[in-house]
Design a protein that fits this description.
Layout: H1 3-34, E1 44-47, H2 50-59, E2 74-80, H3 83-96, E3 98-104, E4 119-124, E5 143-149, H4 150-162, H5 175-208, H6 220-230, H7 243-252, H8 258-289, H9 312-323
Parallel strand pairs: 2-5
Antiparallel strand pairs: 1-2, 3-4, 4-5
Helix pairs in contact: 4-5, 8-9
């Protein structure tokens, strides 16, 4: 493809490719959120720059006829904390998009060799998406989606900086050290998975027992279990509740055991639930009068639209305030760590 044609295509397609990129990122984020998958860093995305395309074409001339034939003209990267989330995400991508190509970079590595590990997908959007205003006119566009764990991402970023993408790139005196780093990062992924399994086993044992011991010291997982057992399920704001900050606040206020939490929760919860309903009604009335809320987007329905104001964390926090004299709510300015 000649340089003038590349420049002409870039001028024609780059702006539209950026719209396509933003639409894809939005949809992927919603898909991942619905599945409860945990990203290690925010979704990364880009439209390939003109200089990058020209430099690559200079090094390795290609025979494509238009920039839209480039697999990575639009690129998206998903980095997950846990390997199980990565596996689930790959299934989501396979079910949500038309997969043109799929490659597991680790399959090209020998068992005792380090290297670049990532799953690459070249995707197009399904035909039914092309009728949605966001994606009208994008039937010829495709994107490369890279999927990796945070440990794999650390290695990829570091090796890119050091320019050690393959073993023969590494000076011989450094190869042992580099192989140790690669092995450690792979070990981190395995250990994170083991932690998840042990945590699930811990929670299962608590749920299967007759109840949580009242003298047990509070931790984040116990807080979540108590919330699910004691509070209305519809008040749960799954994936968005900060039980870690709540635990620090409770401990600072002297609420350190399951029993002390339950005693205060049972005392303050009835008034808190009633307050939550009143605040929800007030918020709904205010927004209806201002004609602010758009009923067409049900995905954005706030809790107060459903007659709920406080989430699980909020219900516990306000119940403590009502039950314990002098209870101090942690603010953004407080530092209790």
């Amino acid at each position: 493809m000649k340089v003038d044609k590349i420049k002409e295509d870039y001028e024609s397609f780059s702006s539209k490719a950026d719209i396509f990129r933003r639409g894809l990122v939005e949809q992927i984020e919603k898909i991942l959120s619905l599945k409860g998958l945990t990203l290690g860093v925010p979704v990364e995305s880009r439209v390939k720059t003109l200089s990058s395309i020209l430099n690559k074409d200079k090094r390795k001339p290609s025979n494509y006829n238009t920039l839209l034939e480039l697999d990575d003209f639009v690129g998206i990267r998903l980095v997950f904390l846990f390997k199980r989330d990565l596996i689930n995400a790959m299934e989501c991508l396979t079910n949500s998009f038309v997969i043109l190509k799929s490659e597991d970079k680790s399959e090209s590595l020998d068992a005792d060799r380090f290297g670049y590990q990532s799953h690459h997908y070249i995707v197009k959007i399904p035909d039914e998406w092309l009728t949605v205003p966001t994606f009208i006119g994008f039937n010829d566009f495709k994107a490369e989606i890279q999927v990796r764990t945070l440990s794999q991402h650390i290695w990829a970023t570091t090796s890119h900086k050091l320019q050690y993408k393959k073993e023969h790139d590494v000076p011989l005196p450094l190869r042992r050290a580099i192989n140790r780093v690669s092995a450690l990062l792979e070990f981190v992924d395995l250990e994170f998975e083991r932690v998840l399994i042990e945590r699930e086993s811990y929670v299962d044992k608590i749920n299967e027992s007759q109840g949580i011991r009242h003298e047990a010291l509070l931790n984040v997982d116990l807080l979540k279990i108590i919330a699910l057992q004691e509070l209305p399920l519809e008040c749960q704001d799954e994936g968005h509740e900060d039980f870690d900050d709540l635990l620090a606040e409770l401990i600072e206020n002297g609420v350190t055991t399951v029993g002390s939490l339950l005693d205060s929760l049972h005392k303050g919860l009835p008034d808190t639930l009633e307050e939550s309903k009143k605040l929800a009604r007030s918020s709904l009335k205010s927004y209806e009068e201002d004609d602010f809320y758009d009923d067409e987007d049900e995905r954005e329905v706030p809790r107060w639209k459903k007659g709920i104001y406080y989430s699980h964390v909020g219900l516990i926090r306000i119940s403590m305030v009502k039950a314990i004299e002098g209870y101090k709510i942690k603010t953004l300015d407080d530092d209790w760590d």
